[in-house]
Amino acid sequence: MPHPPEVADESLESGEPLRESGADGETTNGLHALSLREGEECSASGPQGADVPRTLPRDGPTGYGLRVAKKTADLQSAQKAQPTTTTPDGSLPSPGSPTIGRIPILGVSPEVEGGRWPAKAFAGEIVPFRATAFREGHDLIGVRALLTSPKGAESTVVLDPGAPGTDSWEGEARLDELGTWSFRILAFADEFATWHHNAEIKIDAGIDVELMYTIGAQLLAAASADASRPASERTYLSRLAKKLSSVKKTDDRRSILDDPKLARIARERPFMGLRSTSEPRTIRVERTRAGFASWYEFFPRSEGARKLEDGSWVSGTFATAAKRLPAVAAMGFDIVYLPPIHPIGRAFRKGPNNSLDAGPNDPGSPWAIGSAEGGHDAIHPDLGTVEDFQAFLGSASELGLEVALDLALQASPDHPWVTEHPEWFTTLPDGSIAYAENPPKKYQDIYPINFDNDPEGIRAEVLRIVRYWMSLGVRTFRVDNPHTKPVEFWEWLIGEINATDPDVVFLAEAFTRPAMMRALAKVGFQQGYSYFTWRNTREELEEFFMSISTETAEYYRPNLFVNTPDILTEYLQFGGPAAFTIRAALAATAGALWGVYSGFELFENVARPGSEENIDNEKYEYKVRDYAAAEAAGASLGLFIGTLNRIRREHPALGQLRNLRIHASDDENILVYSKHVSAELSPTGASDTIIVVANVDPHSVRETVVHLDTTLFGITRGTTFRVHDLVTDAVWEWGADNYVKLDAFTTPVHILEILED
């Protein structure tokens, strides 16, 4: 269920709590509390469009603001919830018929391509609901999001007005239940708000005073006769109606307009007149690790590898790699990602630094999949057996870690597919098979798949492979270069897998054009790599963070990897340890998902000349690292990374992506942003606010003033508050404008929590 529901837990006069509609269809939700004319019936439409008749007694008072029909049928037609776009069967309306709805509703979100695909959320994510809604004239409206959970429970989210003059409406709910949710936006004539607004102005000005009180009395009396409201609420409204009707020299009728209980009732169960609803939209809520997780990548063959005196190597195994898992868990990571673990081809095997002359002791690239020992459903003999792999999975699970496997749909020239299914590849005019290229890069050891020659055969084989690894216990796949395969293939594959196993997560390793990256996310990929790796200046980072937290957040979950075996940016090459510290802090706090490739914590920053790749790249050779020695020498970022992941777990605000807000500073190199979760939506029941202030220039000491919009996290302008640095443990008193000094060589980043007094 969304948290919190619109209806409050606090009881009214008799102690009877306000309730909301349940999954069994029992309607106790005040969305049906309409103000009608005597004896007339109105249909109230719930989230699925079901009509719920409501009839007021014929001796009840006349409602306010319903100026449309005199006949019951006319009133039902005018007040019935109306879709705002197409006809009920989804076809286009006939020419001349209105589609806008009695109260226009536009710009509904979250939605993806007009509802073509469901929007995304993860369990525990706070989802913003937005719409543009308005009506003619000056009467006020109200807007709600009507939610239906995967189990059929109905609830309501109040949408409040956005920026003045924009007719925008916004509200939030925390979605915890896994599965597909649906929602509609309801816009209605808010009769109470209209009366209240008019009455405040006129009564205080001495204009139409008694008329305003009479209209209010009729409005409250009509609501008190609504049987769907709790009895205690009806009694309370009836008493206020009688009070508004009285005329005494000493009466205090004016105080009713400021009655907080009445305001709460009107907010929770509005007094609705004309109504329209949008077309339904869907949101797919996936497991938490689909949207909030910390990834750590390492090559199992390097963990425990040994070089012998004759220059040959003994590969690491799943058993030796398992010895690395406790250190990964101690740094607070959730997911261990392994590059391909399959047999590696011999033909055109790459040597050190992507050379074409591999020696007999060179292991080759794990992405050159397939040899005489097998293909995508086999394990490299050097790593161990299927039973050894399952033992590795068990060791990880005991430490709270999940193992992600690489899904690389390509083949070495030695892959069994090449002889068994040559139609799965592209044959050139000279009879040779085309190898992979990304000019100027060439991958002679890899044949890309041609998905058009035998699409059904390829689909069946890939589905079999994925389900095989799932049967061994794998629930997360990092997909290599999905942008070089048809998008429709991924929509089909992920749809097939998630239809039976909705907990399986796919991460798209797609560093490519924005349209392709976004399309992959829309069709199903739960996560995707992003441009974060190359966004380094304050201006670049502000633009990037705002884009991922607002523009694409309804469907695209960026995983902010700080480095990969392919990517060692100039920022890391030349920024020293400060650059590594800054990048880790930004990725861990700005993103809900982030990742590290091993070696990052050791400040590995030497690139192959003329490239953004590490020299002596682990893709082509074994790499032995002494993590313990580096830590003992103070040459490791491991402890800081552990601190970051601990902070992420302890602070609900960092578990979200859509709540990131940018603040200002007087220095072009000082980046400031905050994340906030209100008490009502926090899983802890307490509000949580994190402020990050980062010096993004790793070569300098910066002194400046930062400027906070404190209203974004619920603090009145001009109010001071205490902040606690979660890295240094310092405590300061802050306000809207604050002096900071950030030394890139000692303390390049403040990660501040606001302390509750």
From TrEMBL:
Residues 293-629 form the Glycosyl hydrolase family 13 catalytic domain. One of its GO terms (biological process) is alpha-glucan biosynthetic process. It comes from the Bacteria. Its EC number is 2.4.99.16. The active site is at residues 480, 509. InterPro entries: GH (IPR017853), GH13_cat_dom (IPR006047), GlgE (IPR026585), GLGE_C (IPR049171), GlgE_dom_N/S (IPR021828), Glyco_hydro_b (IPR013780), Ig-like_fold (IPR013783). The keyword Protease does not apply. Keywords: Carbohydrate metabolism, Glycosyltransferase, Transferase. Homodimer. PANTHER family: ALPHA-1,4-GLUCAN:MALTOSE-1-PHOSPHATE MALTOSYLTRANSFERASE (PTHR47786), GLYCOSYL HYDROLASE FAMILY 13 CATALYTIC DOMAIN-CONTAINING PROTEIN (PTHR47786:SF2). This is Alpha-1,4-glucan:maltose-1-phosphate maltosyltransferase. It comes from Labedella phragmitis.
